[in-house]
Specification:
This protein is of the alpha/beta class. The chain has helices at residues 28-36, 51-60, 75-89, 118-146, 157-160, 168-188, 210-217, 227-237, 262-267; strands at residues 15-19, 40-46, 65-69, 94-97, 149-154, 193-200, 249-252.
Length: 272
């Protein structure tokens, strides 16, 4: 950083991004990879070898991309992911934390606080919070050393802004990501690093249930969002242009969180 407070920028054409949770072809993580492909070299990560398919798709688009398979709730694996980017390209300019569960993945994972088991609690925190923390921690040292970095976490409307019934662990984990993000933003703004949360509402992916799609249709926008609509904001926050936005929660929800009367639309005008 110079005396005017301007942060350094990465070399033109040489930016490097690490994106977690990018295995699903219809998910937000893969959409973020496609959005960043024109401007970044990519390390895309998932828990299974299906990431190899995403790498092939990205390379077909002209991207310089490599895949990584591993459980990022294990600290050593998170360290290895960041090391892959550093060994290959010598820097990491953007980290997109997209790994984690969607809001309603499997009834066995959902319960109110009084019925949440110790195992459920630990699993929810590991999948949604630990993965975020371990990868972010690993990425911070090289970002500080180079005086530049963009960290964007895919949070959720759930926990950070609103809540639905019966899923205490998920809401707690997603809300905790906001606190972690703000702590990093305050600690590292002077190192040229920004850290933000993008909080999607109801987004249509390949794993969306009928119920989730119906909830999207009940938003003021009248439809669920698309992964690309989340990814476009992520791409901006991961760019040098977003140098003065940090510690924020940016909502992408079709107006869901500002609509006070969604149930009245179901009841009809006679309920007014």
């Amino acid at each position: 950083m110079d005396t005017q407070g301007q942060t350094r920028t990465p070399p033109a054409g040489g930016r490097v991004a690490v994106i977690t949770g990018a295995g699903s072809p219809t998910g937000i993580g893969a959409a973020c990879a496609r959005a960043l492909a024109p401007t970044h070299r990519l390390v895309v990560a998932a828990t299974s070898s299906r990431i190899d398919d995403r790498v092939r798709e990205l390379r077909d688009l002209g991207a310089d991309a490599v895949g990584f398979v591993g459980d990022l709730s294990i600290p050593a694996t998170a360290d290895a992911l960041v090391a892959e980017a550093l060994e290959r390209w010598g820097r990491i300019d953007a980290l997109v934390n997209s790994a984690g569960m969607v809001a309603t993945t499997g009834e066995e994972e959902q319960s109110p606080a009084e019925r949440t088991t110790d195992e459920q609690w630990r699993n929810l925190l590991a999948r949604n919070l630990d993965t975020n923390f371990f990868v972010t921690r690993a990425a911070l040292a090289p970002m500080v050393a180079q005086g530049y970095g963009r960290i964007v976490s895919i949070g959720s409307l759930s926990g950070a802004v609103m809540a639905y019934r019966g899923d205490a662990g998920y809401h707690a984990a997603k809300a905790a990501i906001v606190g972690l993000t703000r702590s990093i933003a305050v600690d590292h703004a002077r190192h040229g690093i920004t850290c933000n949360v993008v909080a999607p509402g109801w987004i249509a992916t390949g794993s969306s249930s009928e119920h989730e799609r119906a909830l999207g249709e009940a938003t003021p926008a009248g439809r669920p969002g698309m992964p690309e609509e989340v990814a476009s904001l992520v791409a901006y926050l991961a760019s040098p242009d977003a140098s003065y936005i940090t510690g924020q929660v940016l909502v992408v929800d079709g107006g869901n969180s500002i609509d006070e009367e969604p149930f009245l639309r179901d009841l009809g005008e006679s309920a007014r």
